[in-house]
Amino acid sequence: MARIVECVPNFSEGRNKQIIDAIAAAASNTDGCTLLDVDPGPSTNRTVYTLVGSPEAVVEGALNMAKVAFKLIDMSKHHGEHPRFGALDVCPFIPVSPDITMDDCVMCAKQFGERLAKEINVPVYLYGFAAQEEKRKKLPTIRAGEYEKLADKLKDSEWKPDFGPSEFVPSWGATATGGRKFLIAYNVNVLGTKEQSHRIALDIREKGRGEGKPGKFKEVQAIGWWLEEANLAQVSINLTDMDQTLVHQVYEECKKQAEAINIAVCGSEIVGLVPLRALLEAAEYYIQKENLFILEEDQKIKLAVNRLGLSSMSPFKPEDRVIEYRVRQSDPKLLINHTLKDFILSVGARTSAPGGGSVAATVGALGAGLSTMVGWMTYGNRKFEALDSTMRRLLPPLHQAMNSLIPMIDADSEAFNKYMAAMRMPKETEEQQKIRAECMDTAMKNAVMVPMTVAQTVNTCWTPLKEMAVHGNINCKSDLQVGARSLELGVWGAYYNVMINLPSVEDAEFKEKAKAEAEGLLKQAQDACVEVLKIIGERA
Description:
It is a single chain. By secondary structure, the protein is α+β, with helices and mostly antiparallel strands. It folds into three domains: 5-179, Formiminotransferase-cyclodeaminase, Chain B, domain 1; 184-328, 2-Layer Sandwich (Alpha-Beta Plaits), CATH 3.30.70.670; 334-537, Four Helix Bundle (Hemerythrin (Met), subunit A) (Up-down Bundle), CATH 1.20.120. It is built from 18 helices and eleven strands.
């Protein structure tokens, strides 16, 4: 997967379509930058843009957007419901791909802030993980007083910008930039007044009603406002750390608070994009609460959208609003995004990857898929109603293995490509040779561990599959037989991919342990396959 950073610049213009589109075009026209979402709000007079790309590309894209906004937005004429202190009010950078760290995002923020200040001569503050002082970590603290008090604030040496002049720029104001975790901008709809929605906001947000009166949730910012175009109030919420507070927790608490003051909550909305995890955790909450049995990801998303009322303001389309889905769509190089025909043709092409490792992962995933299918063909069938509780137990591990094996298809090819990249490293000097050898050894160990993980994952299927062979729908007998052989073949292929790579590893202890583990995994799969086929064969 490419190194991907998300950038979410918030511009203080939500009503003029020409300006909104011009700023969007500046991002779209930046090489390596993909604009995922544009979310304008007329009442807030603010538009939230979401772009992704390499660290260098998103910094360049955000700068290009800011330069356009500098010519088109005049903050001296701006009014809106949302707190703000600048034309480009805030520009955070967020890690997306696993190889992007928060330090990378802090570096993006510093580069962006320094260049923005230099190129258009405006004040810039660092916040979040990029903050240089403790008091500047929280955006509301930096933005306190908003645009209207900024001229006085800039005169205070305590609030000297991190980059740019301390002089007030009336048309622009100031900009905050930083590195942060994924922020979920989330609004809960209230059929009440602005004051009532703000009352709920005070009770749920971390700072509560002031010193000594904290609110219910950590890492939650909230205010109440009136949304003129929808003729309702909202509790407008920023969830700044999903590890502390989740969307469904806040929604359920808002419902509880609203009920206590005899007003109604009628759904909610997510502004911009949302991490997949937020919706899946909401789905799991409602699954447990209502004793439901749902395994498929798309069904879990439908449940979360329904229970949270996410389509109450406009249709919530997961393919457009979930960050992982958008990033996945924007990376056509992934094998799992190919058609089956294209994947087979790529295997048959005159290239080393995808090869046997990717095919082994594919075959293993298909074996787990067939095993899962048999469970579904048994569950919910009136003829096998007595087995529903058994299928509820057997299906999850098979379904999980199937989903875990899918990314392994690409991981194997990526591991091979990283080894080849290490081989191409310079080797003119002794130091270069040493670095190259270390990188090659690390890459080869990874190339061993990917098929090892495939075999380990496949072997988690055998225990539930043996029981599925006893109880599964007999009409699916051949599917179970093909599934069992596919699982065995997946491990067999993974074993030989481990063995062919081991001689290139220098670490003798690693080689010995890996060889023993691979042999054990192969024997486990072969023995289990024989047992499963025997059970199926003996059924009438």
